[in-house]
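To close the section, here is one more complete example, presented without commentary so you can practise reading it yourself. The ligand is zinc ion.
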Amino acid sequence: MATHCCETMNYWANFKCSEHPDVFACPDNVVFFKSRPRQYGIIVHDGGSSFIEIKFCPWCGSSLQERNKK
Ligand SMILES: [Zn+2]
Ligand SMILES: [Zn+2]
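Output:
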């Protein structure tokens, strides 16, 4: 389980509904998260798999960009 910037993001990015294995199919799910490459989005429930990519957490304001490890 990936850890995120804050508890609210943790909750939504790891949100799994027993009725809808596909995150886009669940009307309760609002956050799309992909680990490689790291990407966060707000799910648009238009019947497809649309999302609006976000660069900052809507709850705590942290940058969601992957940090370069050098
Ligand atoms: Zn956050
Ligand atoms: Zn659901």
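Once you have examined the tokens, check your reading against these statements. Residues 1-15+31-70 form one domain. The mean pLDDT is 92.
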